[in-house]
């Protein structure tokens, strides 16, 4: 018969083994989040919420997994997934480079990138009305555009001088501030985040969507050592049961649509 002291000693010795088990065996996955409304945010009741958080909880729950959320900047989350020290990053774009160290679920939503402008004031000319095609926009000079530093929201940006020359800024809030102050003619942003922020500021009526630039599918990016192919299949099966996005997350209506008719959202 084991004494209490012997039992405690056995538990101490066994704990490192338990912690070293594959996370799939423990049915728990660590998930990164950062403040990115309306996709991930602290709600008024103090609880973590947002579209990505809600969908991830549902997807992993139906796959028999339990998410534990960690507040991490995106660059840090990507680094930790690569080092197999974080299990899941939400809202990820599948790339060949990332597939070296991660598995990707089926897409669970689409991100829309748009070109937003401020509305002309009373008596002001609307310089955008003369741009009836994307080629007109691309060849326009003198447009002061901005985008988030490091983003590549449009595959044809390299072929479009007006977009390629957009000035980079460190935050979306800065872009919106400059747009509303009329110091920028337009900004390239993820639509849902821009719309959410403008509504918070009571300024959605002061802007208009000029061009739907690009749509891309986003997935759960999972560290390779965190999930097996069988577990990934359960996650994909859960994604297949998701309802279509509600009206608040529908594709934005813009004056011009730069996406090809056959575009499936890939990049």
TrEMBL record:
Pfam families noted in UniProt: SBP_bac_3
InterPro entries registered for this protein in UniProt: Solute-binding_3/MltF_N
Database matches in SMART domains: PBPb (SM00062)
Name by which UniProt lists this protein: Transporter substrate-binding domain-containing protein
Protein family per UniProt: Belongs to the bacterial solute-binding protein 3 family.
Species annotation: Aeromonas sanarellii
Superkingdom classification of source: Bacteria
PANTHER family: ABC TRANSPORTER SUBSTRATE-BINDING PROTEIN, MEMBRANE-BOUND LYTIC MUREIN TRANSGLYCOSYLASE F
Gene3D superfamilies: Periplasmic binding protein-like II (3.40.190.10)
Leader peptide range in chain numbering: none
Disordered: annotated segments: 246-267
Domain Solute-binding protein family 3/N-terminal: 28-253
Keyword annotations: Signal
């Amino acid at each position: 018969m084991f004494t209490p002291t012997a039992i405690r000693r056995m538990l101490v010795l066994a704990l490192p083994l338990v912690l070293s088990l594959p996370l799939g065996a423990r049915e728990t996955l660590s998930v990164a989040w950062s403040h990115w409304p309306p996709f991930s945010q602290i709600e008024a009741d103090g609880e973590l919420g947002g579209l990505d958080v809600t969908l991830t909880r549902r997807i992993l729950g139906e796959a028999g997994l339990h998410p534990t959320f960690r507040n991490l900047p995106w660059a840090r989350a990507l680094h930790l997934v690569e080092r197999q020290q974080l299990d899941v990053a939400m809202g990820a774009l599948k790339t060949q480079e990332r597939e070296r160290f991660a598995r990707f679920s089926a897409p669970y939503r689409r991100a829309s990138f748009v070109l937003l402008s401020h509305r002309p004031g009373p008596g002001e000319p609307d310089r955008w009305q003369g741009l009836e095609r994307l080629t007109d926009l691309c060849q326009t000079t003198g447009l002061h555009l901005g985008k988030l530093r490091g983003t590549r929201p449009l595959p044809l940006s390299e072929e479009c001088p007006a977009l390629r020359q957009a000035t980079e800024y460190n935050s979306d809030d800065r872009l919106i501030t400059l747009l509303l102050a009329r110091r920028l003619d337009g900004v390239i942003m993820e639509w849902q985040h821009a719309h959410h922020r403008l509504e918070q500021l009571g300024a959605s009526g002061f802007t208009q969507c000029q061009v739907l630039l690009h749509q891309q599918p986003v997935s759960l990016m999972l560290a390779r050592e965190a999930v097996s192919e069988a577990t990934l299949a359960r996650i994909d099966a859960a994604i297949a049961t998701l309802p279509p996005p509600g009206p608040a997350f529908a594709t934005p209506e813009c004056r011009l649509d730069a996406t090809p008719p056959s575009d499936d959202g890939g990049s």
